[in-house]
């Protein structure tokens, strides 16, 4: 007994030294790479998919769309659509299926740095930002306050440094910029200055598109450069649920098409309010509406790059409030991704829209539920996945950092388990049972440590005693320190001085750097 105890003690000492040595090594292998192939989670059966799809096509053929711009009616009718007795634009099933067949299936969403390019389509999974929060959880006071242009710029800088944020779409509205044109221009400028990753923006009016494209051309070095390297997608909501087109978004889409700006067509119906309360009924109605958006784009520009963003949102029917977190909204968005991938279209859904007001346990489970469900479903572009709080009304710097670590765990799960002769480890098993009696320190374990496991920086795995030594910090406090470290660094030089001066000469830039 005593001899066995001594052997166990020596083994513990060796293993502790070995672990300290391994911890000091820089990672040699990306255990949680972006863009893994999803599709493992399939909440809908093949029969379910067929039923929902057939119902969506029946809605478009028999009920149709209202409030259709004249140009859209003319172009659509030339391609097989018709207006019914009450003036709604109806799309026959063969027309919709032809549109799906001719639609863009994959495209490259460029970064200003090609290392950040994303191929959108298939079942490759990427997480990025979104939202239009009007409040920021102040990192100094821990209270909500109106979001500012400086916040937007700092969020862009933060996203630029975080591994799992594949693109940056405006996560907050600069409430200190009142004029709509100034807001569109300065939103674009803040993102240009903050990151070289792909970006996304929206426009109040179609006439704001051309000036922002001019700014992008200036940033890239000349007229027409943006069209050759479209690093920004336009976010539009072309359908007002239930089943009506929005003319402003339609005009923005046509203007964006002129410059080759990819379109993210977002449908955000709300269960029991602007869409059926049943999950199946909602999926059928929102699929019909997103197909109507796809048709709107393709009757003007066949095969144009568009993200099919069907984001079914949930209303808490007891109190009438939007519920961004929970199993039902996670399930709906995972099913939406499955439907879109079944059609072979680039899919976009939403996740991580916590109802929690601060980074706490509620935030953690709400975000993890939806990130994992949508990631495993194979959604290409998963929006709202960083920083969003308070049912999309607020955004948090600390949450950005915590979410980034959470997404590494999600990517690890999507990546799955690699089964081959090496990973089965027959030799390692034989060496352990005939040698030291354990696997610590063996070459097989060393390699597995680098390639199989993710090791968090913020989440704590220490003993209570070891946790006390650096000050008993919780995850929000650790994230706050990381945010401060990132934002205290020099501002990135993502616009050279000459281009920046040209932009400032041409536009009223309000960001003072």
Explain the overall architecture.
- This protein is of the alpha/beta class and 513 residues long.
- 46% of the residues lie in helices and 11% in strands.
- It has an eight-stranded parallel β-sheet. A four-stranded mixed β-sheet has the order 7-6-20-19.
- β6 and β7 form a beta hairpin.
- α2 packs across α10 and α4 packs across α10.
- The N and C termini lie far apart (69 Å).
- The N terminus is likely disordered.
Average pLDDT figure: 94
Residues in β-strands, percent: 5-15%
Strand order within the widest sheet?
5-18-17-14-13-10-9-8
Fraction of helical residues: 40-55%
**How many H/I helical runs?**
19
For the termini, the CA-CA separation is 69 Å
Number of strands: 20
In quaternary terms, these chains amount to single chain
Radius of gyration, whole Å: 25 Å
Q: Which structural class do the helices and strands define?
A: alpha/beta
Q: Largest sheet at a glance? A: 8 strands, parallel
Overall shape: globular
Task: Give the low-pLDDT segments.
Answer: 1-13
Any chance you could write out the topology, listing elements then pairs?
Blueprint: H1 2-23, H2 46-63, H3 70-78, E1 82-83, E2 89-90, H4 93-102, E3 107-109, E4 118-120, E5 126-127, E6 135-137, E7 144-146, H5 149-161, E8 168-169, H6 180-194, E9 199-201, H7 209-220, H8 225-228, E10 232-236, E11 239-240, E12 244-245, H9 247-258, E13 263-267, H10 279-298, E14 306-310, E15 315-316, E16 321-322, H11 327-343, E17 347-350, H12 361-377, E18 381-383, E19 388-389, E20 394-396, H13 397-415, H14 421-424, H15 426-434, H16 443-451, H17 464-468, H18 475-487, H19 497-506
Parallel strand pairs: 5-18, 6-20, 8-9, 9-10, 10-13, 13-14, 14-17, 17-18
Antiparallel strand pairs: 1-2, 3-4, 6-7, 11-12, 15-16, 19-20
